[in-house]
Amino acid sequence: MSSTAWTDVDEYVADLLIGRDENLAEALQACEDAGLPPISVSAAQGQFLNLLATIQGAGKILEIGTLGGYSTIWLGRALPADGTLVTLEVDPTHAAVAESNVVAAGLGSRVDIRVGNALETLPQLEVEGAGPFDLVFIDADKPSIPEYVTWALRLARSGAVIVVDNVVRGGAVLDSDSDDPTVRGVRAMNELIAAEPRLTATVLQTVGSKGYDGFALAVVDAKSA
Protein backbone atom coordinates (compact mmCIF):
# COMPACT_ATOMS: atom_id res chain seq x y z
CA MET A 1 0.00 0.00 0.00
CA SER A 2 1.37 3.42 -0.93
CA SER A 3 1.90 6.38 1.38
CA THR A 4 -0.83 8.16 -0.61
CA ALA A 5 -3.27 5.48 0.52
CA TRP A 6 -2.08 5.88 4.12
CA THR A 7 -2.95 9.58 3.96
CA ASP A 8 -6.29 8.89 2.29
CA VAL A 9 -7.23 6.45 5.05
CA ASP A 10 -6.23 8.99 7.70
CA GLU A 11 -8.46 11.56 6.05
CA TYR A 12 -11.31 9.05 5.82
CA VAL A 13 -11.02 8.24 9.53
CA ALA A 14 -10.79 11.90 10.51
CA ASP A 15 -13.78 12.88 8.38
CA LEU A 16 -15.97 10.02 9.56
CA LEU A 17 -15.07 9.66 13.23
CA ILE A 18 -13.73 13.06 14.25
CA GLY A 19 -15.09 15.73 11.94
CA ARG A 20 -13.83 19.25 11.47
CA ASP A 21 -12.95 21.10 14.64
CA GLU A 22 -12.49 24.85 14.25
CA ASN A 23 -10.18 25.29 17.25
CA LEU A 24 -7.88 22.54 16.07
CA ALA A 25 -7.96 23.71 12.47
CA GLU A 26 -7.11 27.24 13.57
CA ALA A 27 -4.31 25.92 15.77
CA LEU A 28 -2.71 24.13 12.82
CA GLN A 29 -3.10 27.23 10.67
CA ALA A 30 -1.46 29.37 13.35
CA CYS A 31 1.45 26.93 13.46
CA GLU A 32 1.83 27.13 9.70
CA ASP A 33 1.58 30.93 9.69
CA ALA A 34 4.30 31.14 12.34
CA GLY A 35 6.61 28.88 10.32
CA LEU A 36 6.62 26.00 12.79
CA PRO A 37 7.65 22.62 11.34
CA PRO A 38 4.64 20.53 10.22
CA ILE A 39 5.29 17.73 12.69
CA SER A 40 2.22 17.86 14.93
CA VAL A 41 0.40 14.58 15.46
CA SER A 42 -2.36 13.78 12.98
CA ALA A 43 -6.02 14.21 13.89
CA ALA A 44 -6.39 10.46 14.32
CA GLN A 45 -3.35 10.36 16.59
CA GLY A 46 -4.64 13.35 18.54
CA GLN A 47 -7.95 11.59 19.08
CA PHE A 48 -6.02 8.52 20.20
CA LEU A 49 -4.18 10.58 22.83
CA ASN A 50 -7.47 12.07 23.97
CA LEU A 51 -9.00 8.61 24.29
CA LEU A 52 -5.99 7.31 26.24
CA ALA A 53 -6.23 10.20 28.69
CA THR A 54 -9.98 9.70 29.00
CA ILE A 55 -9.69 5.95 29.58
CA GLN A 56 -6.95 6.63 32.13
CA GLY A 57 -9.16 9.16 33.91
CA ALA A 58 -6.18 11.49 33.88
CA GLY A 59 -6.39 14.52 36.15
CA LYS A 60 -2.72 15.47 35.79
CA ILE A 61 -0.90 15.21 32.48
CA LEU A 62 2.72 15.97 31.61
CA GLU A 63 3.70 16.67 28.00
CA ILE A 64 7.34 16.93 26.96
CA GLY A 65 7.49 18.79 23.64
CA THR A 66 4.69 21.30 23.05
CA LEU A 67 5.42 22.66 19.56
CA GLY A 68 2.31 24.73 18.70
CA GLY A 69 0.00 23.12 21.21
CA TYR A 70 -2.00 20.88 18.87
CA SER A 71 -1.48 17.70 20.88
CA THR A 72 -1.78 19.81 24.04
CA ILE A 73 -5.33 20.72 23.07
CA TRP A 74 -6.24 17.10 22.38
CA LEU A 75 -4.89 16.03 25.77
CA GLY A 76 -6.25 19.03 27.64
CA ARG A 77 -9.77 18.34 26.45
CA ALA A 78 -9.70 14.99 28.27
CA LEU A 79 -9.08 16.65 31.64
CA PRO A 80 -11.78 17.20 34.23
CA ALA A 81 -12.68 20.79 35.12
CA ASP A 82 -10.08 20.84 37.90
CA GLY A 83 -7.42 18.97 35.90
CA THR A 84 -4.00 20.29 34.95
CA LEU A 85 -1.59 19.75 32.08
CA VAL A 86 2.04 20.84 32.30
CA THR A 87 3.74 21.04 28.92
CA LEU A 88 7.43 21.72 28.31
CA GLU A 89 8.80 23.54 25.26
CA VAL A 90 12.38 24.63 24.62
CA ASP A 91 11.61 27.17 21.86
CA PRO A 92 10.03 30.47 23.06
CA THR A 93 8.48 31.12 19.64
CA HIS A 94 6.79 27.73 19.61
CA ALA A 95 5.62 28.25 23.18
CA ALA A 96 4.07 31.61 22.31
CA VAL A 97 2.11 30.06 19.44
CA ALA A 98 1.04 27.22 21.72
CA GLU A 99 -0.15 29.60 24.41
CA SER A 100 -2.30 31.50 21.92
CA ASN A 101 -3.76 28.26 20.57
CA VAL A 102 -4.45 26.83 24.01
CA VAL A 103 -6.21 30.00 25.17
CA ALA A 104 -8.28 30.12 21.96
CA ALA A 105 -9.35 26.53 22.67
CA GLY A 106 -10.61 27.55 26.11
CA LEU A 107 -7.93 25.61 28.00
CA GLY A 108 -5.81 28.44 29.32
CA SER A 109 -6.75 27.79 32.94
CA ARG A 110 -5.82 24.10 32.76
CA VAL A 111 -2.56 24.26 30.79
CA ASP A 112 0.78 25.40 32.22
CA ILE A 113 3.37 25.98 29.48
CA ARG A 114 6.96 25.94 30.76
CA VAL A 115 9.65 27.37 28.47
CA GLY A 116 13.18 26.00 28.66
CA ASN A 117 15.28 22.89 28.27
CA ALA A 118 13.14 20.02 29.55
CA LEU A 119 16.10 18.40 31.30
CA GLU A 120 16.33 21.56 33.40
CA THR A 121 12.58 22.01 33.84
CA LEU A 122 11.81 18.43 34.88
CA PRO A 123 13.89 18.63 38.09
CA GLN A 124 12.06 21.86 38.92
CA LEU A 125 8.74 20.06 38.61
CA GLU A 126 9.98 17.44 41.05
CA VAL A 127 11.04 20.12 43.55
CA GLU A 128 7.66 21.83 43.20
CA GLY A 129 5.80 18.58 43.77
CA ALA A 130 3.93 19.11 40.49
CA GLY A 131 3.12 15.42 40.14
CA PRO A 132 2.40 12.67 40.39
CA PHE A 133 1.16 12.59 36.82
CA ASP A 134 -1.42 10.16 35.49
CA LEU A 135 -0.22 10.30 31.88
CA VAL A 136 3.03 11.46 30.28
CA PHE A 137 3.30 12.17 26.56
CA ILE A 138 6.84 12.50 25.19
CA ASP A 139 7.21 14.06 21.76
CA ALA A 140 10.53 15.88 21.89
CA ASP A 141 14.15 15.51 20.74
CA LYS A 142 14.89 11.83 20.36
CA PRO A 143 18.51 11.81 21.58
CA SER A 144 17.21 12.81 25.02
CA ILE A 145 14.24 10.46 25.28
CA PRO A 146 15.98 7.91 27.53
CA GLU A 147 16.38 10.71 30.06
CA TYR A 148 12.81 11.87 29.50
CA VAL A 149 11.50 8.38 30.20
CA THR A 150 13.61 8.21 33.36
CA TRP A 151 12.11 11.50 34.51
CA ALA A 152 8.62 10.34 33.55
CA LEU A 153 9.08 7.39 35.91
CA ARG A 154 10.14 9.72 38.71
CA LEU A 155 7.16 12.02 38.21
CA ALA A 156 4.44 9.50 37.38
CA ARG A 157 2.13 7.76 39.79
CA SER A 158 1.75 4.03 40.10
CA GLY A 159 -0.45 2.92 37.20
CA ALA A 160 0.42 5.92 35.05
CA VAL A 161 0.60 5.69 31.26
CA ILE A 162 3.69 6.85 29.36
CA VAL A 163 3.46 7.43 25.59
CA VAL A 164 6.47 8.20 23.39
CA ASP A 165 5.96 9.26 19.78
CA ASN A 166 8.11 8.65 16.67
CA VAL A 167 9.98 5.59 17.88
CA VAL A 168 10.08 3.47 14.70
CA ARG A 169 11.79 6.07 12.50
CA GLY A 170 10.59 4.54 9.24
CA GLY A 171 12.10 1.22 10.29
CA ALA A 172 15.53 2.67 11.03
CA VAL A 173 15.16 1.56 14.65
CA LEU A 174 16.34 -1.86 13.45
CA ASP A 175 19.81 -0.54 12.61
CA SER A 176 22.03 -1.25 15.61
CA ASP A 177 24.98 0.37 13.81
CA SER A 178 23.18 3.61 12.98
CA ASP A 179 25.07 6.84 13.63
CA ASP A 180 21.81 8.82 13.52
CA PRO A 181 21.40 10.34 17.00
CA THR A 182 17.61 10.05 16.78
CA VAL A 183 17.81 6.33 16.09
CA ARG A 184 20.43 5.82 18.78
CA GLY A 185 18.22 7.69 21.25
CA VAL A 186 15.20 5.54 20.44
CA ARG A 187 17.18 2.31 20.70
CA ALA A 188 18.63 3.41 24.04
CA MET A 189 15.11 4.19 25.26
CA ASN A 190 13.86 0.78 24.18
CA GLU A 191 16.71 -0.92 26.01
CA LEU A 192 16.03 1.17 29.11
CA ILE A 193 12.34 0.20 29.07
CA ALA A 194 13.16 -3.46 28.49
CA ALA A 195 15.42 -3.46 31.54
CA GLU A 196 13.04 -1.48 33.76
CA PRO A 197 10.98 -3.80 36.00
CA ARG A 198 8.47 -1.05 36.79
CA LEU A 199 7.34 -0.77 33.17
CA THR A 200 5.14 -3.01 31.07
CA ALA A 201 5.41 -1.79 27.49
CA THR A 202 5.05 -2.34 23.79
CA VAL A 203 5.79 -0.50 20.55
CA LEU A 204 3.12 -0.20 17.86
CA GLN A 205 3.96 0.65 14.27
CA THR A 206 1.79 3.27 12.58
CA VAL A 207 1.19 4.54 9.07
CA GLY A 208 -0.80 7.54 7.92
CA SER A 209 -0.45 11.16 6.93
CA LYS A 210 2.65 11.37 9.15
CA GLY A 211 4.35 8.55 7.24
CA TYR A 212 5.67 5.28 8.64
CA ASP A 213 6.55 5.47 12.33
CA GLY A 214 5.17 4.28 15.65
CA PHE A 215 4.83 4.94 19.34
CA ALA A 216 5.84 3.29 22.57
CA LEU A 217 3.14 2.70 25.18
CA ALA A 218 4.06 1.81 28.74
CA VAL A 219 2.29 1.47 32.06
CA VAL A 220 4.02 1.97 35.38
CA ASP A 221 3.50 -1.33 37.17
CA ALA A 222 1.35 -0.78 40.26
CA LYS A 223 2.82 -3.92 41.90
CA SER A 224 6.44 -2.80 41.70
CA ALA A 225 6.30 1.01 41.60
Automatic annotation (TrEMBL):
Keywords: Methyltransferase, S-adenosyl-L-methionine, Transferase. The keyword Cell inner membrane does not apply. InterPro entries: Cation-dep_OMT, SAM-dependent_MTases_sf, SAM_O-MeTrfase. One of its GO terms (molecular function) is O-methyltransferase activity. GO terms for biological process: methylation. This is Predicted O-methyltransferase YrrM. It comes from Haloechinothrix alba. The lineage of its organism: Bacteria, Bacillati, Actinomycetota, Actinomycetes, Pseudonocardiales.
